[in-house]
Fold:
Amino acid sequence: MRKRRDLILKTETDIKVFLLFLLDNIGYPVEYEVLLSIVEENTDDISLDYVECLERLVESGHIELDMLDKDRYYSITSKGRMVASELYDTIDKGFRERSLRSAIRYISLTDSGRSINAFITETESKRYIVTMQAHDRFGEVMSVSVTVNSREEAEAIKKNYEAKPEGVYRGVLFSVTGKLEYMK
Structure:
């Protein structure tokens, strides 16, 4: 049974904004076939329109194309992010949320262009603040601090974040959005 999700993307601009939205949320280069799979999963349609829009976004400098062997990888540029972030709200909210669920499994802190940092600060009351940060090429992605009672507990949190930043990041996203998809 054909779903009606593709009816939401009516214009070439809608398609371009949708492609930029996906790449921006994933946050690192995505292989061509993977990107088209995410599009198909959300629109039940892969037409030449998507491929043409992708090519036009590369030509206009909104998306960057990298070749590795014969594989094509696409990522959003600063220019693309700046322009598209103002247009994201033009795409149906429910459609954006469904699409984000598909892209979530590709969101990663450990892939190229991302860095993490964690540090412990002792308070005047002998408690310990653990600050966990993540950055990508556009700037800060996350900065979270928790206060605990012992240095040992603070060290354990810091060590866990450094070993598994992905789990912490997804846990924070789940906590602030309530969307269970972040935990998958």
Notes: The first strand starts at residue 30 and ends at 31.
